[in-house]
Amino acid sequence: MKFITKERIILHLQYYTRFENDFEVPDAISQEGIAEAVLSPRAHVSALLNEMEKEGAVYSRLAHVSRGFRRKNVYFLTDSGRNIAKELSEKIRKWNPGLLEDREALMMALAEKPKSTAQTPQPPALVDREQETEEINEFINSGKGRILCLYGLPGIGKTQLMLNIAALHNGLYICLPMPLHASYEFYVALAEALARKGRTKLKKHLTRNNFGIEAVFLAIEECAGLVICVDNAQYLNTVSDERLNLFWEKTKILLAGREKINVYNEQDVMRGIVKEMHITGLGEHAARELLARELKIEEPGFQEIYGRAKGHPLLMLLISKGGTNTDWQYLFSEVFGALGESQKIALKMLALIHENLDVSAFIGIEQLSALLNKGLIYAVENTYKIHEVLRDFVLATMNPEEKKRIGFQVAQAIRKNLSMHAQKERIRILIDTGNTDTAKKEMMENYLTFLMHGELSFVEQAVHRILEEERIPEFQCVLAEIQLRYGNWERALDILEMDTRGLAKYWQMERDYIIVRANNLGTMFEKSLEICTRAYKEYRHPKFLLVKGRAYAGLNMNKKAIDTFLDALSKGAEQGIALAEIGNILIDEHEYGNAIEYFEKAMVYIEDGSIRNKIGINLAIAHAKSGNLSLACNNLEKIMKISRENGELINYGFAAVNLADIMLERGNYPDAERLAQDALHVGQKLNLGLLIAPSLINLGKAQKGLGKIEEGERNIALGEERYREIAQSGHGKFGNKNADE
Fold it and tell me: What's the CA gap between 584 and 596, in Å, rounded?
């Protein structure tokens, strides 16, 4: 239905007649407010208002406008204008929106929509809600009623009922998440729900500034042919206005809430336009069966559960039940099916019981399987606790085949949760239940993602457990990568000396890449250059140019190193690594400002947390050398904390030794001594000369500052001797910075 601009102005102004005698009035009846409401330029509206004033439909006066600094012209309807408004309103009431599209064509179009825009998987059918479902279907199909209001206690099954009705009638399900402050917020929720159905006109049109009568008409047209199901509708009680009233009059709508919703009056109920339905109980059959038994608290721990759960009436009823194993199995297999919203509650209750009792004593694996088949896992919010409970359920069965089947089912259910914790639990469950082939495939595809997030220990443990079942040479490379990230370069090389025959070409390349980086870390730069030259010729991958440049830098051949890094960039190498390597050389050249710029650019391209920490250490060195000690100190402390949590000893050690440098410069000898000792311990554990030497020297300087002269001089001498050993071996230069990547 379309109206000319004058008519839209009259329809807009009819909502503001009560402000005629007020000192302060809303901005919506000023020229700017009216122009926004009717979606028309202000100059055009101004001209129309002048015409309408001459015609006697409106009159104007000066008034203070809300949140304004001066008085403005505001507009009200005259008696003649009110009569026009009534005629237009009657015209709207007689308007039948009808279907905008052919029903069959609409269904085909919706079916072709990608699944990402579809509603979430529909829950299983309700148990013991047949009577209510039948009443609602009769109301919808009769064509007499317009609004149906469901109300009842939280968790009583309203949401479940609404979802099923929406699915049955190709309806639109809207859940209002919180109390609304204006009717506009309802229309926003409505636009989002329509967009999931493939109807996007309202969403594209709707903004707070153009929320006029046209938006309401568009909403009504978009909802043509749909049953609108609004959950948490009690939130509408505070925002009901004319814009919502018009929508209620022109749509078939179901409202569900904890209390009656006041968008209608008693006369509407009497005339059959509105039907009220009070939802009670768990469903008649299930409630009778449950309440017929004696309420006993016999099992140990039930009293505590009862006390903790009594905030929710349904949980209180279920948990206070107590009783035998058979009772509990009945509870899970029958009663949970009668809980509507309680798909979430069911598994939360499992977690609650699990904290107090041995779940395997009274819940069989068949009950778990039944829950999974009903799709309950997908509704779980309390992810951490639920995964632990499910894992215990799976491991409770002694039948290997059943354990393997259920374990795979649980792992598939968890797959939808993308959190790192959930994905780790998924791998663990697959391994624990004998689904080794699936676990192997998952680890092969995702181990780099886990490493990027600092999950070194988890990957190492999972790979070792998979290797217990069979020899997998690719996983030897993964273990070597982990050791290299720990900083244990010798251990990485030892692992790769084991039997790695049968590697595909990609994994052969990864093996050589790990060997080169390990040699660089161990300051064996000449050997590294030799391997890099061969590997680049064989694989033509630019990452070998990056590590070759690192070897040149280690041999003090800075110009050659920079040329190699630039060559790597031109051949498509990782920009972040190349920029960081150039930054390392700029530190050696004492160009600290330029080094900072390169490191900051590098950070933009790097996602891997371990490599970001390595670059962060060198960035902190550059900041410290340029005089910004506070920033350097803060960054190094953060890196030490993260590295300690992730088990990355090498990053922790280099951060500690450089932080000790800053403490020495500030004259804080106690902290310098502690940090140098930490770094020395890491260096000795990893046999890293480049870390041991500066740690000994910093430790000696701190001890001398604390008055331990003899001990300090001895450690300084040991550090200088270690430096000479590195230099005499022909490996190249050294310094207080990370030698890897």
Answer: 10
pLDDT digits (tens, 9 = 90+) for 664-713: 988 999 999 999 999 999 888 877 778 898 999 999 999 999 999 999 99
Give the whole-angstrom CA distance, residue 509 versus residue 716: 41
Helix (H, G, I), strand (E, B) or coil at 148: strand
User: Which residue matches tokens 């009842």?
Assistant: 152
| Rounded (5°) CA angle 241-242-245 | 90
pTM score: 0.46
Structural domains of the chain, with CATH: 5-94 (1.10.10.10), 103-278 (3.40.50.300), 283-434 (no CATH), 435-489 (no CATH), 504-573 (1.25.40)
d(CA 246, CA 249): 5
Distances (CA, A) of 720 to 247, 674, 713, 734: 84, 20, 11, 11
Look at residue 324 and tell me whether its pLDDT is greater than 50: no
Q: Which long-range contacts (CB under 8 A, 24 or more apart) does 369-374 make?
A: 369/406, 369/409, 370/332, 370/333, 371/332, 371/336, 371/346, 371/347, 372/406, 372/409, 372/410, 372/413, 374/123, 374/124, 374/337, 374/343
Cβ atoms of 103 and 226 within 8 Å: the answer is: no
In this predicted model, what pLDDT tens digit does every residue of 327-363 receive, in sequence order?
A: 344 444 444 443 333 444 444 444 444 443 333 333 4
